[in-house]
Amino acid sequence: MIFLWAFIIGGLICVIGQIMFDVFKMTPAHTLTTLVVLGAILDGLGLYEPLISFAGAGATVPITSFGNSLVHGAMEEMQQHGIIGVLTGIFEVTSAGISAAIVFGVIAALIFKPKGN
Question: Which NCBIfam families does the entry mention (predicted)?
């Protein structure tokens, strides 16, 4: 039964991404960022861990799990090291290169305006 729920939950996350592409005409970058932030918000509200317990790989394989990992690591490190743990936590739990790419990508998105096609 766990395989069925993993398939359904993982498929629903992918359907949400596909709807963002088709209906809302979002770019892949916007869709990716939205799903990561959604995973982070769900973890911040304490809803992503029960989803992982229920759906297994259906919740850990999609990109929403990356947002969950970032927030989860930041919160754990904050408990131990205070406010500086928020920054170190995202680098400890996830790969430093991927975390740096996200941080610098957000900074670049805030500073620069994209060109239209």
Answer: spore_V_AE (TIGR02839)
